[in-house]
Fold:
Amino acid sequence: MGEHLLVVGCGSIGTRHLKNLKALGAGPLIACDVDGGRRDAVAAALGVETVATLEEGLRAQPRAALICTPPATHVRLALAAAAAGCHLFIEKPLADRLDAVGALARVVAARELVALVACNMRFHPGVRTLKRWLDEGAIGRVLAVHAEYGHWLPGWRPDADYRTVYSAHRDAGGGILLDAIHEIDYLGWFLGPLAEVACLEAKVSDLEIDAEDTVALILRSAAGAVATVHLDYTQRVKRRRCVVVGSEGTLVWESRGKSPETCVLERYTAAAGRWARQEETVDFDAPFRDELTHFLACLAGRERPLQDLAAATRALAVVETAREAARRRATLPVREA
Structure:
């Protein structure tokens, strides 16, 4: 294999990754997109080689393929790249459904490929600090968690008509439940395997979409912790928040805004008997750069993927179970991934 990195999909996230890879000195880079306008835009802005199809891109024998297309296409494209021997960086969610995920995992294992599913929130300083505190046992045994995320969908990509992007369409892998799989992913990271789920999902706004814009989840981990999750496309100001209640204290993380972002972390312990608070401004692009730096380190053999196919598949299994739970108005065991 060569040293090229092939970025498949030049929408907002693919273009962001191309810019960051170029800034990191990675490459050479090839950008792939079926849309000629997007190819021309990245070629003009970044001076990268472009191709119209994955097959064309694979002729260069790239070392790795970054799959940055709508979720419903992820597995098909990743399978083709893996079959050609490419290491994989796959944007979240891994897929829009579990079908064929097992086949991808088998190819990756058989060919001993690096496969990272890109959940940039694992690289967010707020999430990472909560994880570190939990690993240190700062609040004892975790009893309960509340996580929430909301952001006005038309404001996600201001330069695009929200009605035309995958987020607006269920059959393309859209809807807030899949789009905000970050919350499910980091809860699994914090709590261990998620075992049960109940869900209400609905379209309650006037947004012109055919997917859900609001979701409420109740989850129980295999260890017994209870979590509630609120997700929406409707809040006019971007907001993320997580409260973790433990046997010996409480942790709070909240981030508001987008560029730059204000990140607040609070920690109360019974031993100290008081709150400690810290606040910082976070560059919106920093977690994206950090996950690419991590992927390059994985390619070099210095690190192992922070979110591998198994973790991403478990998160996807929670989403599928949640949708079934919503249809059946039931609390269900998370299906086997």
